Amino acid sequence: MEVLREKVEEEEAAEREEAAERAERARTEKMTRPVEVRKEETTLTQETLRDLEKKLSEIQIPVSAELPAFTKDTIDISMLPVSYKTNTPKEEQLLQLADNFSRQYSHLCPDRVPLFLHPLNECEVPKFVSTTLRPTLMPYPELYNWDSCAEFVSDFLTMVPLPDPLKPTIKREEKVLPKKYTIRPPRDLCSRFEQEQEMKRQQEIRAQEEKRLKEEEERLMEAEKASPDALHGLRVHSWVLVLSGKREVPENFFIDPFTARSYSTQDEHFLGIESLWNHRNYWINMQDCWNCCKDLIFDLGDPVRWEYMLLGTDKPELSLTEDDSGINDEDDVENLDKQDEDKSFDMPHSWVEQIEISPEAFETRCPNGQKVIQYKRAKLEKWAPYLNRNGLVSRLTTYEDLACTNILEIKEWYQNREDMLELKHINKTTDLKTDYFKPGHPHALRVHSYKSMQPEMDRVIEFYETARVDGLIKREETPETMTEYYQGRSDFLFYRHADFGPRVKKLTLSSTESNPRPIVKITEQFFRNPAKPAEEDVAERVFLVTEERIQLRYHCREDHITASKREFLRRSEVDSKGNKIIMTPDMCVTFEVEPMEHTKKLLYQYETLMHLKKEEKLSRHQVWESELEVLEILKLREEEEEVHTLTVSIYDTKRNEKSKEYREAMERVMHEEHLRQMETQLDYLAPFLVQLAPGEKLTRWQAVRLKDECLSDFKQRLINKANLIQARFEKETQELQKKQQWYQENQVTLTPEDEDQYLSYCSQAMFRIRILEQRLNRHKELAPLKYLALEEKLHKDPRLGELPKMFT
Predict the structure, then answer these.
(1) Are strands 306-308 and 275-277 parallel, antiparallel or unpaired?
(2) What is the pTM of this model?
(3) How far apart are CA 257 and CA 237, in angstroms?
């Protein structure tokens, strides 16, 4: 450090010598001016000089376009604390240390980018970057983890490109003075005919460009891929580094604050690191970044790899291996601590206010509750929950062209929907709409893909199979077919396919429910049932309704390559003459894999045919119910899309109107009850004051008489209450004794039901007697206290004002 200080002093002396030479050169040029000019200068008076200085100050100096433009912040700085507008002595000392540190860094590393140490804040006051950080513990559990915290911060940030991508904007804003002298614009001498011809020529050129639009876009795409980036590795960017060790972080990783995405330190997107800082110190990377950040060692306690700015006691320690842990002795450590005591400098306290996020702001997330992020061929829109009436919180629109005019697809995310809608995907190319639902829909919907909400159109509906009794997981529908897939059924059915024919036209207007599509064919497939032999376990059955045929295909045995088949001709049970048709062998065509093992008789075939007729009727009914269910789902979805009902938590007292109204009603009822009690509170002197004339003043003897009458009346009421409780107690006791005597007399002839009734009566009677006894004892204890309390109230009652004077 002493050698570095000597080099800096030598450079400062050289700079002073150069400044002296420039001043001498300026004096020489002034002396070599023409004589006439010197004479004019000698004739200038002090007043003339002041006028000239005033005029020169009014002339605006053009600012070079290369300087970064400073955009003024919209924050009202008059409401900011004093720490935002001024620096404390310790902060000024820190800025001086930062300047000295920056000069040394520029001297040692002239080829590297200048350090980002003390930019200007909102009030254009330079502040050290480490003092802009103030660790704060927030009362929201979502901010305790890095992923949800990074997403919350990214929603609040809005990316604004720098005027100069090579360095941040740290210049002061220069006030633009109004121009006093301006030059008039020249006259327009252009020909109108030439302008019209130019417009025609431009229109022709524009028409030709529109014809070649697709080819140009493809050429641009290829050029974008092939053209190198001139500013690759030179742009300024800041991100967050999370070091491993604390809170069970296994490895180091980066966080992009604008996208909330995490990247490994080995990622190729990060080309290098100039410096690091936190709320305690500032470090410069002294390692070579030729291989991006893959070979960097993030041991901030190593001064060879990371040069720190402040020599404080809280700097990280060098992580040593087991072999190097015993190199330094205790004496060496003590000597180093003594040398560092005089050179240490603690970081000043942060000048920013403590972060306070209200629940409304935390829920709003984005500024004003809305944020739009434009990407290449895509646009992302975000909204706060409950901001849109339909629960929309995010929308991603993908475009086909760079101008973002032709939409390819739209994805919309929803929250707090009563219909459990979570995502809506719209493909503009195929006009296919897909709705995704969370568990909890009345029809257990999971996915609904469709092109039109009209019935009997192409659609695919997926269900949550655990929420349905029939185990249906998927239903595919077209104008002519319907296919259903099942899972976990007791009859091992997993597939049903129905083919429909043209609907029979009716003269009267009828709906889809009253005029269903005629079923032509039903195909059902089953899983293997281990409880049945393979030659008796049906794998597939086909009901040819119009042809009156039923086809069966059984499961294949493990040692066979073919399966048994059977086909039945489903004829009517009676002929045209009314005679009953008997089962004949030609009504069943059978193919047996092993015909010698199992020979099915005609009776078995007849019973199988009767069973299949019942199953066909049941299958047709289930297909009809499936059609009705589709109609109900479509009707319900149309109502849900029109209403857009949102759910509100019972803990959200601000939006939950029902709980808010209930709470207000309860408070109103309690208030009215309190007022009613206050109004209906008995006046212990009212019955006795009625005997006197209105407005008559009480005398001493009248006050004494009123007091005695009130106390005697209250005493009599206490006695009556005690007598009433005593009478009820004696009555219950006598009735219990009579019941016990009756039980002793008839104990032998009683039935079990009579004994149960007797025991139940005794239990209830004992309970009443015990309660009456407790009430009587309590009344005896409180009666004297109530009497004394009333006597004290009467003594202090202002209406009996003459009463106290008797006893004085």
Answers:
(1) unpaired
(2) 0.61
(3) 10
